[in-house]
Fold:
Amino acid sequence: MKFILLISNAFINTMGITQPSPQAANRAAWFIVVMLTAVLAAIATIAIIAIHWASSH
Structure:
């Protein structure tokens, strides 16, 4: 859990987002980690499709 909080705090501080309250910190951490993972998965999928498409032409 500390690693997830570290990632979310780094994201919050980098983007200049207001720090969540202690009660909402865990929920915000999970939300940020899930969203970052989804974005990275989407980017990887697009890259794989683009490489496959480029190599087949």
Remarks:
- The chain has a mean pLDDT of 92.
